[in-house]
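Let's do one together. I've listed all components of the complex below, 571 residues spread over two lines.
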Amino acid sequence: MGRDLLHYVAISAGMALAASCYTMLGGLLGIVDGPWVVLAVVLAGTFCVLVSTSVGELAAMFPSAPGIRTYLRAAFGNHFSLAVLFLYLAMVALAAGVEGTVVAGALAGAFPALPADAVVPGLFVLVVALNILGLEAPRTFQLVVTATLLAATLWVGVSAFAPDAPIAQPRQLATAGLPSVIDLAAAVGAATFLFMGFEWVTPLGRNPAAYRRLIPLSMIVAIAVLALIYGVFAAALDARLDHRLVAADPTPQITLGVLLFGEKGRYAMAAVCLMAMLTSFNAGLMGASRLAYGLAREGLLPAWVARIDLRTGVPFNAVASIGCLSCVLTMVVMTTGAYRLAGLAVAAIVCLVYAALMGAVLRLRRCRPDAARSFRNPLPRPAQWLVAACLPLLALSALLSLPQAGWGPLLLVTFLAAGAALAAALAIRRKDNRLPLARKQGVAP
Amino acid sequence: MNAADAAQATTPGLADHLSAFVRDVNAHPAMAKLLKGWEPRLTIETLDADERFHLRVDDCKVRAVAADGAADEHAILIRGERAVLCEVFTGISNPAQAYLEGTLEVFGDDRDHIKLDAICLVLWGI
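Okay, and this is what the predicted structure of the assembly comes out as:
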């Protein structure tokens, strides 16, 4: 059991771990002062733990099912679930854009001669090509990479508290006042970004029994581990760097690495960033392309998206499509430098999706009370409602937390949500229009 | 025997459908390419009728095997209600749709899911 739990924890934590998480941690210092960042991380982790108990119940109702598409469809119907799924796919691509920008910054700092703006899209293309060829890293390797990333982050964070650790700028205690509720809510909403993807473990249960305890527990453990490590790292950023500069730094992990370990720290942290980007992009690409493949098999996306390589079983068009979308958004985010705006938009979308998942549990308990659930969310119903209601407010606070961006993040999320709803309506209409034609031609629906 | 039992006795069961499925897969010319290098043990289990069947893919051919209780390195479990499984293994239902709806459970990795789906796609075009 211990080994299985470790396996699921590594998947859940590995999905959430990305190079852009360090940037988001630095950005939190622009919303609230020093120690409150740690509180924001812990609170965001707590919200995610509560969400994970709902996700655990949904996974227990639909073991092995492909996550939000199945859960939200069962609870709220086809159109809503499809719209949320499209929004989710857009969010994954946007997150890749943020990730690419951060890693380009890290590489440019470590290797100034390298054309990082070209190298990062090149690496994306390489990952896409490896996926299309059906080359997968062994599972053990993926687990080792996740463990290395976690250990490296913790090591840097803890090293910052060594008595002889250098300090870039004396911490300004006078500014570490009590934050307003709105600022704290914004920081918690933005910090949700750090845990994004923990739920991707739910379709990967090895057997039905895993959904009774292991999968729900693995998500909680993964979130707790991430909260601890991010909390330590955030405290390190606050303790050793000027938080006003950190907030505007796309690669605070490099700055901290250089401060603590000199040039070696720069290269080591650049390597950590690169590793985190490659694993998170690979995981996002695999997950999102499988979702796109499923939609195409449902008839909701064009049939060519579902074409597979018979030899490898890879849905190469779905992989290429998601890869292209991610590359385009990476170029857009890198060119415009809007990585923080995009990061906040991603965090807000994550909050909204998590609210929908909590709502799904509540609705399914009402409309399918007798359905088998090998795991139930132990939280009382009113508490679940409360968490579900808080999440959109956290999303809104996060979207309005960047003064220089004004209404930009909110408009971006509104635009993406409207686009997703429209795309869902068009996809369903397209499928409905094809059915009578297929029947007329004698093709099975 | 009541009317329902009589009807069930005369209609093919899941075992018959699986036999036909195995026959069709092995006879299809495109399957060799699809199954090459993919050699899992498949367990098909009904959620409502306490039935369990075992298939093995070996050397690009599918065959029914007996349950031996031995742990398998590459094992896939497929579960669903009997009616769902019958529809999936006869090409009436789109397995990807059933999987997305949560009525068909498949415990295996991503590639196993797609390979299984592709078998149905190649066989029946759905």
